[in-house]
Amino acid sequence: MFKPLKQQYQEDVVQTMMKEFGYTNVHQVPKIQKVTVNVGLGEALDNSKAVEAAVNDIQQITGQKPVLNKARKSIAGFKLREGRVIGIKVTLRGVKMWAFLQRLIHLALPRTRDFQGVSPDSFDGRGNYTLGLPEQLIFPEIDYDKIDKIRGLNVSVVTSANTDEESRRLLALLGMPFKK
Predict the structure, then answer these.
(1) Cβ-count burial 104-131 (b if 16+ within 10 Å, e if not)
(2) 83's torsion region: left (phi>0), alpha (psi -120 to 50) or beta?
(3) What pTM was computed for the model?
(4) CA neighbor of 120 nearest in space, from 164, 174, 175
(5) φ, ψ for residue 36 (rounded to 5)?
(6) pLDDT tens-digit readout, 110-136
(7) Which of 141, 168, 171 has its CA nearest to residue 56?
(8) How many Cα atoms sit within 13 Å of 16 on the Cβ side?
(9) Which domains does the chain possess?
């Protein structure tokens, strides 16, 4: 099957990037610092069970309990009150981060319907990559019969790269399927 992503990074990616970018030290090679997974829960204002269902889904996908994001201000136009839960997020580092990225790249993304590859333009100018997923069902951990609603999620990969070019190459060498 596949080599573990962290092992692939240490054995293959570091050497390749040192040659391509002319780094003189192993510590100059960009690394992935963290991965954050966010889910917006606008429907939680009407459906109180939505938060619980989304927390269970994200906990199954990431292996970590998410943090609840609460509204800081009340906005009458959105029927939003201060302190209400409007989203959840998980920050992954270390072993869980590498395991999640491995499942995302090799299992979940290829299961996406009509998958052509991920956009190579979703970098922020500082070497971080953000990806929007249309549904949580692409992850094999989610049981189709047990979900209440299809929810999208955002995945942000924070790297230590200084430029988008370095970060794009890092993710490509790790197997991220960018569009041509």
Answers:
(1) bbeebbeebeeeeebeeebbeeebbbeb
(2) left
(3) 0.86
(4) 164
(5) -115, 140
(6) 888 888 888 888 899 888 999 998 887
(7) 141
(8) 13
(9) 5-174 (3.30.1440.10)
Query: Would the CA dihedral through 134, 138, 160, 16 be positive or negative?
Result: negative
Please give the helix or strand (H or E) that residue 171 lies within, else none. Answer: helix 164-174
Read off the pLDDT of residues 73-113 as tens digits, 9 standing for 90 and up: 888 887 778 888 888 999 999 999 999 999 898 888 888 88
The type of residue at 44 is A
pLDDT in tens, 162-172: 999 999 999 99
156/104 Cα distance (integer angstroms): 12
30: tokens are: 């960009």
Q: What are the phi and psi torsion angles at 23 (to 5°)?
A: -70, 145
Quickly list DSSP for 70-138.
Answer: E-SS-BGGGTB-TT-EEEEEEEE-HHHHHHHHHHIIIIIHHHSTT---B-TT-B-SSS-EEEEES-GGG
> What is the rounded (10 degree) CA torsion for 52, 58, 64, 67?
-60
